[in-house]
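Thread: "does anyone have the structure for this chain?"

Original post by V.I.:
We have the sequence but no experimental structure in hand. Need at least a predicted one for the grant figures.
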Amino acid sequence: MGARIRAARLAAGLTQAELAGEQYSKAYVSALENSLTQPSIKALAYLAARLGTTPATLVGDDDVVALRLDADLHLASGDWQAAADGYAALLAREPAALTRAELLRAQAEALCRLDRGADAIAPAGEALELFTAAGRLADAALARYWLSAAYYGSDDLDEARGLLRGLLDDRSGDPGVDPDLHVRALVAAANVDARRGDHASALALLQEAQRAAAGFDALRRASFAAALSASYRELGDFEGALRQGQRSVALYAEAAAERDAAAMDNNLALTYLVLGNLVAAETHAAAAAAALARFDDVRKLAHVLDTQAQIAIARGQPKNARELATTALTHAEASSNHKAAIDALTTRARAAQALGDVSAAATDFERAADIAAEHGLPSRRAEVLRAWAALAAESGDHRRAYELMRAAASQ
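Reply from O.Q.:
Generated one for you, C-alpha cells below.
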C-alpha cells in the first residue's frame, strides 16, 4: 500500500507535506509510504480524495478485511449508499461462496434501507440459498428477513408476508438465531398487515414486538468502540483495531434496535389513529419523534412527522397538519426517502383540502403520484390517485374523478 500511495502522490505532483494537508503530518505520510504504519479508514479516505483516487485503489488486495469492516461500519452507522457501494466493490472480487453470501445479504440490507427493494431481491435471494445450502440457519434467517423487506419495498405484500410468517414460525429451529431478529420480523409483519388493512393483527404484532424490545440501547458503547478502533489503527495495532471495529459493528446493530423501537411506536400511533384512539396515537408518535431526534435520523423522522400531521387532521387542525407535513416533506427530500415524500405530500394535500384550497391539494396529489410512478411503486400510486379522485369528485369535477379512478384501477 505504501508504494501505491507514493506512486499516486508523485503522479499527482504533490509533496509529502502537501498530501498531508492540515489533518496529518509529513512524517505520517512518510511512514505510510515506507510501510512503517497503516492508515486508518478515515485517513485512507482523506488521502484518496486528495490524490484523486479511491481507497480501494490504494488498498489493492492487501487489506480486504479493512474494506469489509469499512463497509460494515457504514451500514451499521446508517451511511447506506457508501455501504452498498462498498459491498458491490467487494463482490466484484469474486469471493468464496460463504463470504459472497455475507456480502450479498449486507448489500440487500443497504439497498432495502435506500428504498430500492426491487434491486435487493436478487442479492437477498441468492444469500438465502447459499446460507441454507451450507446449513447456516441463523444467517439464512437474516437473509430471509431482508428478502421479505425487498419484496415489501417492491409492493409484493403476499410474498413478503409469507417469508415473514415462515421466519416467525421457524424461530425455534436454531438457537443461534439472533433474538432481535424476532422483534424485527414482528415489526415487519405488522407493517405488511397494516398495509393490507388488517389493523387488529398489526396492533397485536406491534405490542408483542414492543414487549420483546424493552431495554434496547447501545449507541454510546458503539461510538466508543468505533473511536477505539480508529485509535488502535493509527497506532499500528491492527488486531486490536479489528477487534474493536467488529465490536462496534455489533453494538451499532444492537443500537439500531432503539430505532426499531421508535418505528414500532410510529406504527402503533398509526394503528391507534385508524382505531380512533387519538390520545394513544399522539403518545406513541411523540415517543417515536423524541427517539429519532436523539439519533438525528431525519429519514425515519419524516415518517413520524407525517403521522403527527395525520393525527392533527383527525383532531380538526388542518393548519397544524399542513406545517407538520411540510416539515416531513423537507426531511424526506433531504434523505431521499421517496415513500415518506409520497406520504407527506398526500397528507399535506388532505390538509389543503380541509382548508378549502383545492388547487394546492391537487398539486400535491399530482406530485405524489409522479414520485410513486418514477420509483416503481404502483400500489402507492393507486392510493394517491384514488384520494385525488375523491377530491375531484368533491369539487364537482366528475370527469377528472372518473379519469383518475380508471388510472388507479390500471395500476
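V.I.: this helps a lot. The mean pLDDT is 82.
O.Q.: and The CA atoms of residues 128 and 235 lie 39 Å apart.
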